[in-house]
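FAQ: What does the model actually see?

It sees only this:
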Amino acid sequence: MLSTLRTPEPPSQELLLRWFKAQSQLLAEERKEEQAQSKLLLSKTAPKLLERHGLALLGLGVASIRIGVGAKVLVELERPTAHHASPKFPPHTFRTGDLAAILDNGAEPQATTESGVIQGVVYKVNDARIVLAISDGKRPAGVKGQTQDGQNKRDARSGDSSKVSGSDLDLPERIRIVKVANESTYDRMEVTLDKLAKALGVPLAASLTSNADSSAEEAETAASSSSASANATSLMRSLFGLAQPTWHTTDLPLPPFNQNLNDTQLNAIRYALSADHFSLIHGPPGTGKTTAIVELIMQIVASNSGAAEEGVPVRVLVCGASNLAVDNILERLVGVPEHRDVFKKKGVGITRIGHPARVVANLQSSTLDAQCTQSAEAQLVKDISKEIESIMAELKPTAAPAGNKSTKGKPKVRGSDRKKRWEEVRELRKELRRRDRKVTSSVLDRAQVVLATCHTAGGKQLAYRQYDWIIIDEACQALEVACWIPILKAREGAKLVLAGDHLQLPPTVKSTVIAPRKTIRKRKDAGSKDNSSTTTKSSITDVKSNDFSGAARQTEAEVKAEGDDGDEGSGDAEADDAELAEKFASVSLQTNVPTRLRLPRSLETTLFSRALGMYGPGIKSLLSIQYRMNTDIMAFPNTELYEGKLSAHTSCADIRLSDLPNLSLHSSATAADEDEQELLAPVVFYDTSGCEFYETTPAPEETVLLADSKSNPHEVELVVKHLEDLFARGVHASQVTVLAPYSAQVALLHSTIRSHRFIAPFTGTSTSSSGKKNTDTETVINADEIELGTVDSMQGREKDVVVLSLVRSNAEQQVGFLAQKKRLNVAITRAKRQLVVIGDAETIAGAKDLPDRFLPNYMEWLDAHAVVHPVVATL
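And it is asked to produce this:
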């Protein structure tokens, strides 16, 4: 594999310092933007408006309070029947791991920032209950009462804690919770960046506090003087181009546990096992990336591959960008009987740190909390937990009389007695934390496989622990610094596997992204005049027409010149360099193309993309067989983004809506009828060109939440019309997802679809609540089962039918972030049997200042290959 890699120029200490400073500044900007947005939510936005957009839950009451692992107070909230007609929550965006501010339900928004705000991490959530984990030192950064040195900060995500103020635990009788920024993640990333800089001998902390006018020469001198103390592992060095990654030849140590793996999955596993430092697994949509990761973990654990010493159990840290990604891996590890047999036989412990996104029994039993509770040492903490809970029950306000909304609950204990009881709680929690640390340490000592999100991996539970393997799924959705949190737990000689798809959505970044360079400098090549043309870096179409033999002969001086405009290349350019690396794959001289570490211009530049840009496609293994889409849906992204390397597995290549067992043709129609074939076609396009179905902007009262968002009510009508046709033919609501790139459109879709009466054919009989049999010929669809969301929320998931509203339609032909091909790639690769696109081809294809031809090419492809419905005739 080594012979296929490009060889990057090792970065100087000065360049490393500039890279670290750029990352630090980008993180600071992102933190500032999140702080500003949280402040707006808490102080400027009406609570009911927040709830309407899923960012708040109002009128909650405390159902229970108990003590969890780590002495966290677990507060369970519900909608009291005295104040709500239904106990179920309205639609919301709260997920496990999110941070929420706990406020008095009656407080004015402007007042909520004037005093300390209690915050909690969402520990568990279902349709009628939400549990928040409240750790010590609950005040958010910057809230009145916090010390300037930040000593009262706490790690909200992991439950790390320091001090507690007993009176701060008082909760109002009626509560509202608001989703806010979790600043502890930034604290952790800053600490990680500093640790990494120290390991590489880079004086980051000193440079950030020094005079901003110090010269580059002084910075380099300081950096060089500190390099002697560097203790970077070989893995760290290879990820920065300071050392070349290497491989050795090896095969699977054991026969595959999963007999259904395809050749590309097996090759990816072999490749990861053969790497001496790190490898990338490139998993395009539906190619079974998680399946390959699970098999890799099984091979490692069952064969003890990569252990630090002979006879010492191998230790694996498995991380993901989201709780859902981690849960998917965990479920496939512990949910297979053959896997459990191996774990039991070899005594392999598996522990999930953090809060699972799904409440599944076999996942819960694998969590650190559950294992601590069930461990032999658990009795150490049970007694003291019960004592704390007993006192907390006394301090909880009594409920107001049912139906009397004006009467507030009163605490059972008041005055000095109440203060004394809080002091008791504080002392008991100190003792509980001390005992809990012993139990937690004992459980983790037995865990060979630990699973956590990238951020949670930096918690106190894993402090000072090292691992032989670090495996990160969804690596292209995680900030680079977030990936370094688990990587810093790799011992010398450990291996890293990054799995993801750099052609799908990057990490969510809220701060302004610096625009990438538009052009590459003219190349001097006597052998080809074409190489002197200026090309757009982000345009795959232009790249395809370039002369790569000339590019391969580009001199080192010329490559340096391209990056010496003061910032040495853009972060976005790195992502595009990853695409360019694909094109160099077949060029024999491609390893002669010098590359180097480039400064990030955006946090969207991931470690996966940066490594791919530095070393070229030889650093990754491509999964090329997809199991999701039929060939028609797959065709365009395959050709435009994946160079035609994807192929559909026989299990999905020819699947159609008409194959669904629940489908029933409309009235007397047959499958051969042209109208039915068009309605049920794999790709359907409703083109609104010329209809003047223009987009709209948010109402003035919603501009705080949706300042740059758009909606299109005409496209919503088309969505409803298509859904009516599908449901009339027996398609289930649970088989459909409706997507839009804009949150304002999703909100409009939600309010319209949830209130619409969809009718489906009724087969058979049913019994009413009175016992009378119904023999109706139709039934009402439960619209709550129709999944609605933004494109970003759907990455990594799939549905039989996906309806996509593109929203943008205007006389100026502006498309905004719809021009980002990675977002559109995610949107058009979620459907299994039918993809329905609704949009204005005239606006989209003719959009100005596009970074590439992806959007116009897709409009042309739809016109040529999709079933195009004339919108004027439809409405």
